Amino acid sequence: MPEPAVLLDALRTRLVELDRVVIAFSGGADSAFLAWVANDTLGPDRALAVTAISPSLAPEEEGECRTLADEWGLRWTPVFTDELANPAYSANDGDRCFHCKTALLDVTEPLARAEGATIVLGVNLDDLGDHRPGQRAAAERGSAFPLVDAGFTKADVRAASHALGLRTWDKPAAACLSSRVPYGTPVTVAILSNVARAESALRRLGFRQLRVRHYGDTARIELEGDDLVRAVEQRHVVVAAVRSAGYAYVTLDLEGFRSGNLNGALTMDESK
């Protein structure tokens, strides 16, 4: 496995090749690392971090992006997307992420043209093996994946972030709130609000890596292994917290947290 310093040098070289970049900055470990390195390598005049604000972004993530931009001296701007206005997105089929990324690019490309820059995303090598149609949308429109080009896996991103002293190195994996809704269930602002409030309530109880999957009036909670035991021990407050977000029933997934868990339904459909 390449040393973090070797990979970091390769990433800096790739960013210099691109010269000017607009970073899709969600505040997660990958995009935060890419934003920091781009700013450090190219300077704020040639690196602009952009965060898409919409109902599918958890409110805490918007605040985190603002805070990180201040802490790190990033040139940063929010942009507002309305992917829910697109029936193809709200229908929530297997290409939902394609339409989401398209909405992001629609509002980001004018900024990139004004900057004479390339849009870059924090996609790493591990992401290439999952169902992520948003990557296809970005690639088709000329966006670049510098972490992939430099050979970074998710573990490499975390190791390099830790070596650089970035507090995002161990940030739990995040994804847009629509990923909590099973494919085929239409996505609405009300559903996303319920999911966001339920997950926020669980974080206030001290749970870090989690998902609240939406099944009508039932919430299915995914937690990491050690937290499953604690959730059972504190089940009364856990149930109360999730019910306060509008759910009538609260269940705990004994398989625990799995990023991209709902993508399994797509694989089952394709095998029929």
Write up what this structure looks like:
By secondary structure, the chain is α/β, with parallel strands linked by helices. The protein has helices at residues 4-18, 29-42, 59-72, 87-90, 96-115, 133-140, 146-150, 154-164, 189-204, 225-233, 235-243, 264-271; strands at residues 21-24, 47-53, 75-80, 118-120, 210-215, 218-223, 249-252. A 4-stranded parallel β-sheet has the order 3-2-1-4, with helices on both faces. The N and C termini lie far apart (39 Å). The radius of gyration is 19 Å and the shape is globular. Residues 267-272 have low confidence and may be disordered. It has 12 helices and 7 strands.
Key phrases:
alpha/beta; four-stranded parallel sheet; 272 residues; 12 helices; globular
Mean pLDDT, all residues = 91
Strand order of the largest sheet: 3-2-1-4
- Counting H and I runs of at least 4 residues, what is the number of helices? 12
What is the 3D shape?
globular
Unreliable stretches: 267-272
Report Rg.
19 Å
**Biggest sheet: strands, sense, closure?**
4 strands, parallel
Helix content: 40-55%
Q: Would you report the number of β strands?
A: 7
Class of secondary structure makeup? alpha/beta
How many angstroms does the end-to-end distance come to? 39 Å
Quote the beta fraction: 5-15%
Give the SSE order as H and E letters.
HEHEHEHHEHHHHEEHHEH
